[in-house]
Write a structure and sequence with these properties.
Bound molecules: tryptophan, iron/sulfur cluster
Radius of gyration: 26 Å
Structural class: mainly alpha
CATH topology of the largest domain: Rossmann fold
Number of strands: 5
Strand order of the largest sheet: 1-2-3
Distance between the termini: 23 Å
CATH class of the largest domain: Alpha Beta
Shape: elongated
CATH architecture of the largest domain: 3-Layer(aba) Sandwich
Order of helices and strands: EHEHHEHHHHHEHHHHHEHHHHH
Number of domains: 3
CATH superfamily of the largest domain: HUPs
Length: about 400
């Protein structure tokens, strides 16, 4: 197979305007990755549809608002391809083909399936599309043959099922006819007993992902004295799928959990109502920070406090120097400073961080045509790559009628 430079792919469900949690948790990482790898980043509008199919009126606007915030945060179309999932319909064809080989149990066992149904009780998520959420994500990843997928902890299971689906696909369709024959013949040369053992171990690894079986089989091969080197290599290759790898298995690139707390000390999230949107008016940002809760023990200005019990302290971890943090520790525990004094460096830090982002967002928001052009170009480039993969997939599955 042709060697690609390492390729990174990631997507974000289109949920509208983004907040500081997205910035520290995802976007800063994308901005860094875009300089190190070939990056594809997309708005997962079909994934948004899996939970919001009843009201689709807001989907388009949510996509544009989100993309504007990506651009404002420094995700650069000169370095990364930015696109919209539904503008690359190849994702849907691959999703369909993969659905043929994906056991229902794999999807039912993905933890997010039941969790989300529990969490979003008011929606009816007993749909075909929602069950297929992780498989659509697999198609998103595999269609670009991405080697790395930056995601948070909650998405690791989706990358894992992607690896399993890829392995199964390669197992079913990646073998070249005479490669398999040669490998089978080589196995026989180990003698009846060893050949049988080899086949069993191989099956256990390929169908159940049993890594112990893989190790045992490898050891078995190492021990063989009377087979040729070529045969040994065939048997090693055959063990792990062998033959052609049409869809390479991706790795999750775990994004360290965002240290960005919300205004109440919990994780920043729209559903907790504790966010600072990237495009929030500076006066509102300041107001939100001035009124955010502090250590409840500091009822009066003269009451000493404990920074570890205060959400403002968590913000100092993100925005303040060691020196300022020492000033906070000393001033808080001795009631030497008031909470508003303490908040000021955080307010300054956040306003300084947001100012250039807001400015760029305003430019893009005022020039939607530019944003559309960026997305159209990105989608075309993505599509060209997706088509190549799909061609190989069709060929491997014998669906390339000529
Ligand atoms: N499921 C992801 C999320 O909720 C979004 C997503 C869709 C994605 N397709 C993807 C992420 C492919 C990485 C790769 O955040
Ligand atoms: Fe929190 Fe600072 Fe007030 Fe202490 S002084 S309670 S750390 S805001």
């Amino acid at each position: 197979m042709a060697t690609h430079p390492p390729r990174v792919l990631s997507g974000m469900r289109s949920t509208g305007r983004l907040h500081l949690g997205h910035y520290h948790g995802v976007l800063k990482n994308w901005v860094k990755l875009q300089h190190e790898y070939e990056c594809f980043f997309f708005a997962a509008d079909w994934h948004a549809l899996t939970t919001h199919y009843e009201d689709t009126a807001g989907i388009e606007e949510n996509v544009w608002e989100m993309v504007i915030d990506w651009l404002a945060a420094g995700v650069n179309p000169g370095h990364a391809r930015l696109f919209i999932q539904s503008k690359v319909p190849e994702h849907a064809e691959l999703h369909l083909l993969l659905s043929m080989i994906t056991p229902l149990g794999w999807l039912e066992r993905v933890p997010t399936y039941k969790d989300q149904q529990e969490r979003l009780k008011e929606r009816d998520l007993a749909t075909y599309g929602f069950l297929g959420y992780p498989l659509l994500q697999s198609a998103d990843i595999l269609i670009y043959r991405a080697s790395m997928v930056p995601v948070g902890e909650d998405q690791v299971a989706h990358v894992e099922i992607t690896r399993e689906v890829a392995r199964r696909f390669n197992h079913l369709y990646g073998r070249e006819p005479d490669f398999a024959e040669k490998a089978e013949a080589a196995a026989k040369k180990m003698g009846k007993k060893n050949a049988k053992l080899y086949c069993e171990l191989r099956k256990r690894y390929q169908e159940q992902g049993d890594h112990e079986a893989l190790e045992t089989a490898r050891a078995l091969l190492v021990d063989q004295q009377n087979i040729t080197l070529a045969d040994r290599e065939r048997l090693f290759g055959y063990l792990e799928g062998g033959g052609r790898i049409v869809l390479p298995e991706p790795q999750a690139l775990l994004t360290p959990a965002s240290k960005m707390p919300g205004l109440d000390g919990q994780k920043m999230s729209k559903s907790y109502n504790n966010t600072i949107p990237l495009r929030e008016d500076p006066q509102v940002v300041e107001q939100k920070l001035r009124t955010m809760p502090t250590d409840p023990a500091r009822v009066r200005r003269t009451d000493p406090g404990t920074p570890e019990r205060c959400p403002v302290w968590q913000l100092h971890q993100v925005y303040s120097s060691e020196e300022v943090r020492q000033w906070v520790q000393a001033g808080c525990t001795s009631a030497g400073i008031g909470c508003l004094d303490c908040k000021q460096p955080v307010i300054d830090g956040i306003l300084a961080e947001l100012a250039p982002i807001r400015e760029r967002a305003e430019e893009y928001a005022g020039n939607r045509q530019l944003v559309r052009n960026i997305i159209n170009e990105g989608s075309e480039a993505a599509r060209a790559e997706a088509r190549k993969t799909l061609e190989e997939v069709r060929q491997a599955m014998r669906l390339d009628y000529r």
